[in-house]
Amino acid sequence: MAAGEEEKKIRELFKTYMAEELKHPEIGRRKKAFIQEHFAPHIPFVLRPALLVPTLSFIFICVLALQLMKPVTKPIPQVALKETVKPKTLERTPFEEGDLGVQVKQVSSDMGSTLVFQKSSQGVPVIVIWVFTGGSNQ
Amino acid sequence: MHDPDRHLVERAKAGDRGAFGKLATRHYELVYAVAFGVLGNREDALDVAQEALMKAFLEIQKFQGESKFRTWLYRISVNAAIDASRRKRPTEPIEERIDLRAHEPSPREEAHRREIRGLVRNALDLLSPEHRTILVLREWHELSYDEIAETLQIEVGTVMSRLFYARKKLAEALGANVKGEVP
Fold this sequence. Notes:
The structure holds two protein chains of two kinds. Chain A is mainly alpha-helical.
């Protein structure tokens, strides 16, 4: 065999050997894993494939919940308010002695023209100041 | 000198990791082929390929653009593979080896491929890592003598003499398979 033919045959065998090796699926798998591990573009944590479905599901549930809550929190129309709610006015009523829980029949003072009386009603102190202008008895 | 990788190299040098990822995607097989051609073992070659690419990434600032990025990457890959072949254990898995003298051609294509693979691997094992490097750059990557000389930073004459020796040893080891006596 001529030297050129021999060289050609060696080249063919060598190329077959290398091509067979490079076709092995392990090469592509490791390449992908390597590139992904070291040089993949940065993806936000929640957008990574493993978390994308749970994240989208969570967002969907939130949106759904908001949609369901909407009718409950909807403000009552002003027209309905006008018809059903009447503004409440407080009317002054004359003071009655019974309001304090005591009946005042006669008030006198030996101490002087001024008497200070204090009564606690439901935890709220009520202070009454009497001023006697006409003497010690009234 | 036109370098198709120049734009990505500039971006990678500016700190764009994704740009280097594109370069790695583009040249992974090139690096792996060098590693496998020199080492002849898939697991070792995969490790060396990744080691070489990581080294290229970490040293990208040192690449001044005097040669093509590919040539620079070849150089890193060759050095990583030769270093690994020196560290490599001398023993190989027994099932990977085929006795050349006991070889009998198989009629089945798959079996034939496996035999060829074993034959070439055994023949390559007879060569030094430097001779295997020349062979893989010339016969697989089809680099010119000048490109090989530039990659390995040796004289063109050295490239030619190493290639001649590698082919001769390979022809001797492959024996009848080269002379066309087997299918």
